[in-house]
C-alpha cells in the first residue's frame, strides 16, 4: 500500500473518531437538572463529601472540604432537616453556564421551611459544577453568618390510672455535682463520693475531665432522690453542690415497672430512625412499656426558633419558628392500688397476673414479677446494678404478662364451655368411671392412661368434675368433641390470633398435633400443647359473668369498649359454669376452697402444669359482685415446693380481701 493511500485511510479514521465523539457529546450533554437533583439527593443522604465534589474549582478555593462538610452538616443536622425537596422553576442560560431558579421545601425541628433560590452552574471539565456559597443553604445566609437553633423542650405528658393516680409523671430530684475549683484532697473526695452515690470513680473522673469543664463550672455527676441522711453526708465532701431538677418519676416503682416502662435519652440510632419528627440530641424517648406505646401522645412537640445570626451576634432574620406544645396526659384503665396489691403478693415469687372488668373489657392490672424500678433507669444504672438485673435468674427485665403458658386445670372451664355449646354432653350427664381413676379411650393408646386424682363418688357430672378437678371427665369431653369441633371451638375463642391491648400479646395456641387423640384428651384438661396468656384466659372467663360475650381487653381509658367474640356461650350455659365455679370455691376440702371469703361470691379454678423442671401454679378467680366484679388470672412459677396451685390460690384470696 502506498503512502498516499495510507494517509487517506488515516484521515478517514480521524473523521470517524470525530463523528463518534460528536455523537457522544451531543447525546450525553450534561443535564443541569440532573446535576441539581443529584446534589439534593446527596444532601438528603448526608453525603457531604459527594456534595463537595460537585462544586467548582473556584468555590473550592474559597472553602476547603473540611470546612464545607462541617458547615453543611452542622446547619442541616442542627435544624433537623429532612425530606429536602427541590422544584425547578426555570433553567436559563447564564454568563458561564446555566442559572437554575428553584423552590426548596424541607422539614425541620421548627416545621416545614419553604423558600425560593437560584443556583449557578458553571461549565467545567465537560460537565456542570455548582458555584457554591452559603446562600445555597438559605438565601439570606452569608459566609460570616451562623444559624442559631433555640429549642424549648415540651413537657412530657403524665400517665395516670383510672383514679388519676400518677403512674409516670414529672417529679423533683437532686442533681449532685462537683465544682472542680472547690475540690480539696481531690482523690479522697472522689473516692468518698463514689462510695456514697454507688458509682465508679472512673465515672466521676470522666465527667470532670470533659473538654468543656472549667474550675468554676458545675459538673453534674448523678441525679437521684436522696434522704436527709445521705444528703448530709454528701454535702460534707468539698466541692459538692446539689441542685433541684425535674425528672421523670414512677411512684409505683417495681409494682408497675414492666407496665409503665421508662424513658431515657434518645440514641443516635433512634434519632436517625425518627428523623423529621422533632426529636433533638437532647430529647428523651419512651424505651419500653406504656412510655413506648404512647410515645407520640406523651412527648408533645418542642418549640423551636431557627434564626440567622450575623457576626456581631445580632439576629438577622428568623427562618422558621414553632410554639412549644406540651405532651398529652394518658389515662389507663389500670387500678394502680390493685396493681400494687397484686405485685406485693408475689413477694419473692416469680409469675404474672392479669385482671379484667368482665362487663367492659377494661384491664385493671397487668403484673409481671419480679420487675425493676424504672426510677433507677432515670437516675442512671451503675454497671453493678445493670449486671445484677441482667444476670438475675428470675429475669426481672422480661415481660411475663404478654407471654403464653400451659394453663393446667384452669382450662377445664373452657372445655366445659365447648362441650355444652356443641352438645357433647349436658350438665347433668354422668360420664361414669368404669375404669376407676384411670381411663383410656381404647387399646390404641397403649400404656397411656388419663388419671384422676380424687375419687369423689359415682356422680361424674359437670359440677363435680369442676369442683374436684376431674382430668378424665374433660379428656372424655374433648374426645367426644373430636379434633375439628374442639380446635374450631378454640379458634372461635380467639386462639391463633395475636391481639393488641396496648401491648402486643402473643397468640394463644394448641399446637399442630391435635389429630392425635391422646394430645386431644390431654388438651381437654389443660395439658397437651395448649398455651394461653393470662389476659386471654381472663377474657374467656369474663363471658361466664356477663352472659356470654368475650369483651375486647383494652388499656387506654378513652378507648371504645367492644365485643371481641360475641355469644361464645349462651346465657344459660354461662350461668351453669359460673355457679359450678363458685361451688368449686365454696365446697369445703377441695383445692379451690382456700379462696373462700365469707360474704363474697368468689368463684374460680385451680391449675398446675408441669413444664420441664418447672411447675406452674395457677388460680383464676372472680368476684361476682355486679359493678364491683373482677376476673383475676394469676400464675406462679416454680410452685412445686410451695403447694402448687395453692400458692396462687392464697395470693388471689389475699388480693380479693383487700377489695372486699
Provide tags for this entry:
22 helices, disordered N terminus, alpha+beta, five-stranded antiparallel beta sheet, elongated, 34% helix, 660 residues
What does this entry look like structurally?
The protein is an alpha+beta fold. The protein is built from 22 helices and 25 strands. The strands form 8 sheets. Strands 6, 7, 8, 9 and 14 form a 5-stranded mixed β-sheet that branches. α13 (336-346) runs antiparallel to α22, α16 crosses α18 (471-492) and α18 (471-492) packs across α19. The chain starts with a helix and ends with a helix.
State the helix count: 22
The residue-averaged pLDDT reads 92
Percent range for β-strand residues: 15-25%
Radius of gyration: 36 Å
For the biggest sheet, the summary is: 5 strands, mixed
Overall 3D geometry?
elongated
Task: Compute the separation of the termini in Å.
Answer: 119 Å
Instruction: Flag low-confidence runs.
Output: 1-27
Share of helical residues = 25-40%
Summarize the structure.
The protein is an alpha+beta fold. The chain contains 22 helices and 25 strands.
Present the secondary structure layout:
Layout: H1 3-27, H2 32-44, H3 48-53, H4 57-62, H5 65-78, E1 82-93, E2 97-108, E3 111-124, E4 127-130, E5 146-152, E6 159-160, E7 166-178, H6 186-197, H7 201-208, E8 219-224, H8 228-235, E9 240-249, H9 257-260, E10 263-265, H10 268-273, E11 284-286, H11 289-293, H12 295-298, E12 303-309, E13 315-322, E14 330-331, H13 336-346, E15 351-356, E16 363-369, H14 374-379, H15 383-391, H16 412-421, E17 438-439, E18 450-451, H17 462-467, H18 471-492, E19 499-501, E20 503-505, H19 517-524, H20 534-546, E21 550-551, E22 563-565, H21 571-586, E23 602-611, E24 614-623, E25 630-636, H22 645-658
Parallel strand pairs: 6-14
Antiparallel strand pairs: 1-2, 2-3, 3-4, 5-12, 6-7, 7-8, 7-9, 10-11, 12-13, 15-16, 15-25, 17-18, 19-20, 21-22, 23-24, 24-25
Amino acid at each position: 500500500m502506498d503512502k498516499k493511500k495510507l494517509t487517506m485511510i488515516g484521515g478517514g479514521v480521524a473523521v470517524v473518531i470525530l463523528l463518534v465523539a460528536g455523537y457522544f457529546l451531543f447525546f450525553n450533554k450534561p443535564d443541569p437538572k440532573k446535576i441539581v437533583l443529584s446534589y439534593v439527593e446527596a444532601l438528603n443522604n448526608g453525603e457531604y463529601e459527594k456534595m463537595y465534589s460537585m462544586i467548582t474549582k473556584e468555590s473550592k478555593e474559597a472553602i476547603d472540604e473540611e470546612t464545607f462538610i462541617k458547615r453543611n452538616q452542622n446547619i442541616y443536622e442542627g435544624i433537623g432537616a429532612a425530606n429536602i425537596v427541590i422544584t425547578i422553576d426555570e433553567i436559563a442560560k447564564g454568563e458561564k453556564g446555566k442559572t437554575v431558579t428553584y423552590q426548596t421545601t424541607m422539614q425541620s425541628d421548627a416545621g416545614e421551611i419553604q423558600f425560593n433560590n437560584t443556583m449557578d452552574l458553571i461549565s467545567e471539565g465537560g460537565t456542570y459544577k455548582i458555584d457554591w456559597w452559603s446562600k445555597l443553604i438559605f438565601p439570606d445566609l452569608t459566609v460570616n453568618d451562623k444559624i442559631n437553633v433555640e429549642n424549648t423542650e415540651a413537657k412530657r405528658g403524665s400517665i395516670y390510672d383510672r383514679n388519676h393516680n400518677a403512674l409516670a409523671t414529672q417529679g423533683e430530684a437532686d442533681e449532685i455535682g462537683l465544682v472542680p475549683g472547690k475540690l480539696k484532697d481531690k482523690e479522697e473526695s472522689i473516692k468518698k463520693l463514689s462510695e456514697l452515690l454507688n458509682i465508679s470513680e472512673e465515672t466521676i473522673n470522666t465527667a470532670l475531665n470533659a473538654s468543656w469543664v472549667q474550675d468554676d463550672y458545675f459538673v453534674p455527676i448523678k441525679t437521684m432522690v436522696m434522704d436527709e441522711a445521705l444528703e448530709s453526708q454528701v454535702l460534707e465532701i468539698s466541692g459538692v453542690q446539689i441542685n433541684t431538677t425535674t425528672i421523670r418519676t414512677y411512684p409505683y416503682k417495681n409494682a408497675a415497672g414492666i407496665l409503665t416502662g421508662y424513658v431515657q435519652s434518645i440514641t443516635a440510632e433512634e434519632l436517625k430512625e425518627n428523623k423529621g419528627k422533632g426529636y433533638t440530641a437532647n430529647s428523651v424517648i419512651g424505651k419500653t412499656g406504656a412510655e413506648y406505646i404512647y410515645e407520640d401522645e406523651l412527648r408533645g412537640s418542642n418549640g423551636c426558633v431557627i434564626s440567622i445570626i450575623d457576626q456581631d451576634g445580632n439576629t438577622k432574620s428568623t427562618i422558621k419558628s414553632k410554639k412549644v406544645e406540651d405532651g398529652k396526659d394518658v389515662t389507663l384503665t389500670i387500678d394502680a392500688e390493685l396493681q400494687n396489691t397484686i405485685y406485693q403478693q408475689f413477694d419473692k415469687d416469680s409469675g404474672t397476673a392479669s385482671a379484667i372488668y368482665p362487663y367492659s373489657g377494661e384491664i385493671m392490672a397487668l403484673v409481671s414479677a419480679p420487675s425493676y424500678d424504672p426510677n433507677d433507669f432515670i437516675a442512671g444504672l451503675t454497671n453493678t446494678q445493670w449486671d445484677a438485673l441482667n444476670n438475675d435468674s428470675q429475669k426481672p427485665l422480661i415481660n411475663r404478662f404478654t407471654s403464653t403458658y400451659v394453663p393446667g386445670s384452669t382450662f377445664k372451664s373452657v372445655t366445659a364451655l365447648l362441650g355444652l355449646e356443641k352438645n357433647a354432653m349436658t350438665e347433668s350427664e354422668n360420664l361414669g368411671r368404669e375404669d376407676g381413676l384411670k381411663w383410656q379411650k381404647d387399646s390404641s393408646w397403649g400404656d397411656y392412661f388419663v388419671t384422676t386424682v380424687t375419687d369423689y363418688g359415682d356422680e361424674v357430672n359437670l359440677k363435680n368434675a369442676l369442683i374436684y378437678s376431674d382430668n378424665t371427665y374433660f379428656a372424655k369431653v374433648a374426645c367426644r368433641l373430636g379434633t375439628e369441633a374442639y380446635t374450631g371451638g378454640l379458634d372461635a375463642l380467639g386462639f391463633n390470633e395475636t391481639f393488641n391491648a396496648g401491648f402486643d400479646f402473643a397468640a394463644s395456641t394448641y399446637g399442630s398435633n391435635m389429630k392425635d387423640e391422646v394430645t386431644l384428651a390431654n388438651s381437654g384438661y389443660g395439658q397437651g400443647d395448649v398455651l394461653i396468656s393470662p389476659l386471654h384466659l381472663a377474657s374467656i372467663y369474663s363471658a361466664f359473668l356477663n352472659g356470654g360475650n368475650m369483651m375486647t381487653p383494652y388499656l387506654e381509658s378513652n378507648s371504645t369498649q367492644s365485643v371481641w367474640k360475641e355469644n361464645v356461650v349462651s346465657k344459660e350455659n354461662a350461668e351453669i359454669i359460673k355457679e359450678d365455679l363458685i361451688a368449686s370455691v365454696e365446697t369445703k376440702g377441695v383445692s379451690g376452697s382456700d379462696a373462700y371469703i365469707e360474704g363474697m361470691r368468689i368463684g374460680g379454678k385451680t391449675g398446675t402444669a408441669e413444664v420441664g423442671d418447672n411447675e406452674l401454679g395457677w388460680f383464676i378467680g372472680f368476684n361476682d359482685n355486679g359493678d364491683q366484679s373482677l376476673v383475676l388470672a394469676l400464675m406462679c412459677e416454680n410452685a412445686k415446693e410451695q403447694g402448687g396451685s395453692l400458692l396462687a390460690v392464697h395470693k388471689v384470696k389475699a388480693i380479693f380481701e383487700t377489695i372486699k
